[in-house]
Write a structure and sequence with these properties.
The structure holds two protein chains of two kinds. Chain A is of the alpha+beta class. Chain A contains ten helices and eleven strands. In chain A, 40% of the residues lie in helices and 19% in strands. In chain A, strands 1, 2, 3, 4, 5, 6, 7, 8, 9, 10 and 11 form an eleven-stranded mixed β-sheet that branches. Classes of the chains: A alpha+beta, B mainly alpha. At the A-B interface, α3 and α4 of A face α2, α3, α5, α6 and α8 of B.
């Protein structure tokens, strides 16, 4: 039998591609055991594929490159989360041409008036249709003045620490994290919802209030449970003291600007400890904040807020000018959270110090 | 306008999850789910893209685009235990889009300059790992992708057909042609 002579040679490839089954497949397998041409063909076809199946044959990227690409991917994905949804269908069914024209004009006016997207430097603001607000930048601080309506604010800390303050008719709100929404009606703050990071809310004649990721505040309702409750494994029962009516059981030293030292005899409350650090940070007591975050990390190393605490500790040390400790804290963060979201921030921070 | 956002998954909360679980979380906009998916599959996707394209310079962008596209359509994942073939399919589509866009650009430039762009194969400069991989570069891209999906990724012909949105008969034809071209390229390489 010559190489070209076996009439069933094509079946070697057909088997490989799954084109034969049942009796045909069994028949060819029997044939291949006695036909050297077909069995050789099967071996040759396998030799074309085998080197490609070897995982080790791939050129492996260095770990740093992979991590860099991972960060780039997550940042790009995060940007896509803040895209505008398609506009609702205009109620134009059955409307006359004049009505449609009015609708278009109305839409244009609304767009001009409200759909501003401030993409300046570090702060991205999305306003609802009723919002009246302004934004200004001063040195390393971004100030947003909200008179009415709702704003969704995202603060980009990737290029270094940014201070963002929302001035409200009845107080102000300072960003410590990245994403939050704030609403104002009739000259009063009506709602604050934090989606990522944390904020400090200062309403006149009320105690300072720190809100973490997943928490909401309104003057009449108790804030919602922390996002950490979504994870039963690591959920502290995060009930936050309301800003308007600070109830005694929830009254946390963390929420008051002049926060006293943590009571050693108190039951462990990771959230209160965390807020204590945030409150000190927002009050400008950076050294104290760094120490409180360090204590928090020592007491609650596995708490969901531990990564935030570790990051904020670096920020606190940076603000009090302790470069050496700040660098050490940044290294500890990166070592403890090798896939943490603040690597870029801290690398930039350390880089700035080095320069 | 709304902000689609899920709570940030903490490192300490992470447990080994199945691919469908990760994709369900990703469909809700959970950023950490994308990180997990990337950690799990970036290596095979990068290898596939690197082998499938003739231009090593945009492998990163194609891998990037693959995962972003996966995040975009995660809600439509069919729930198979491993999403690797699904990701490979997305990667193959991204490569095809890139090729089509590139072809249009070359056609435009050629019409302007009256000459075709010089064929340069940057992969030749890469550290190709095996004789078969070097020879595979000489197989046309559609056939090469089909061949890689079948032989390197172990996808069935119907799966490849679905991923590439082509008839299964076309998959068989491409596989046959790819093997023929690959064997020829190997022979020429050995002779030279």
């Amino acid at each position: 039998m010559s190489v070209a002579s076996c009439p069933r040679l094509f079946e070697a490839e057909a088997v490989r591609d799954g084109r034969l089954s049942g009796a045909e497949l069994a028949s060819f397998k029997r044939h291949a055991t006695i036909c050297t041409v077909c069995s050789h063909e099967a071996i040759v076809l396998e030799s074309l594929a085998a080197p490609l199946r070897s995982a080790s044959s791939g050129q492996r990227e260095d770990e740093l490159h992979v991590r860099r690409e991972r960060t780039r991917l997550l940042a790009a994905f995060e940007r896509t989360l803040f895209t505008s949804e398609p506009r609702p269908r205009y109620r134009m069914l059955g409307s006359a041409a004049v009505g449609a024209l009015v609708a278009v004009l109305f839409l244009l006016l609304r767009l001009r008036a409200t759909a501003h997207t401030a993409s300046a430097s570090h702060v991205l603001v999305h306003a609802d249709s009723t919002a009246s607000w302004t934004k200004s930048s001063e040195a390393d601080q971004e100030k947003i003045i909200l008179e009415r309506g709702a704003l969704s604010v995202r603060v980009d800390h990737s290029s270094g620490p940014v201070r963002c303050i929302v001035v409200l008719p009845d107080g102000e709100l300072e960003d410590i994290g990245t994403v939050f929404t704030v609403s104002v009606e009739d000259g009063r703050t009506t709602r604050v919802a934090v989606e990522e990071g944390s904020v400090v809310l200062r309403i006149r004649s009320q105690p300072l209030l720190a809100l973490g990721a997943g928490e909401r505040w309104s003057p009449t309702a108790r804030p919602a449970a922390s996002a950490a409750s979504a994870c039963a494994q690591c959920a502290p029962s995060a009930e936050l003291s309301p800003g308007a009516q600070l109830s005694p059981p929830a009254q946390s030293s963390a929420t008051v600007r002049s926060a006293p030292p943590l009571a050693a005899s108190a039951a462990p409350d990771p959230l209160a400890d965390f807020r204590s650090g945030v409150a000190a940070l927002s009050a400008g007591n950076h050294r104290e904040a760094a120490e409180r975050f360090a204590r928090f990390l020592a007491k609650h190393p596995r708490d969901p807020q531990a990564e935030d605490a570790s990051y904020l500790r670096v920020i606190a040390l940076q603000r009090c000018g302790d470069t050496g400790s700040m660098r050490q804290a940044a290294v500890e963060y990166m070592r403890s959270y090798p896939r943490g979201f603040r690597h870029a921030d801290l690398e930039a921070l350390v880089g700035d110090v080095d320069r | 306008m709304s902000v689609r956002r899920a709570s940030t998954q903490r490192e300490s909360c992470e447990v080994a999850q199945t691919d469908p679980d990760i994709l369900r979380r990703l469909a809700t906009g959970e950023i950490s789910a994308l990180g997990e998916l990337y950690d799990r599959y970036q290596d095979p996707i990068r290898r596939f893209v690197g082998r499938a394209t003739s231009d090593a310079e945009d492998v990163d962008d194609l891998v990037h685009a693959t995962f972003l596209a996966a995040a975009d359509i995660a809600g439509r994942y069919d729930g198979r235990p491993s999403c690797r073939p699904w990701l490979i399919g997305i990667a193959a589509q991204r490569i095809r889009y890139r090729r089509q866009a590139f072809a249009r650009l070359v056609a435009l430039l050629s019409s302007v300059r009256g000459a075709l762009a010089t064929a340069v194969d940057p992969r030749q400069e890469l550290d190709a790992r095996s004789e078969v991989e070097r020879a595979l570069v000489r197989v046309s891209e559609p056939k090469r992708i089909t061949f890689l999906m079948a032989e390197a990724e172990g996808m069935t012909c119907p799966e490849i057909a679905e991923a590439l949105q082509i008839p299964v008969g076309t998959v068989w034809t491409r596989l046959h042609a790819a093997r023929r071209e690959l064997r020829k390229a190997l022979e020429e390489e050995r002779e030279s």
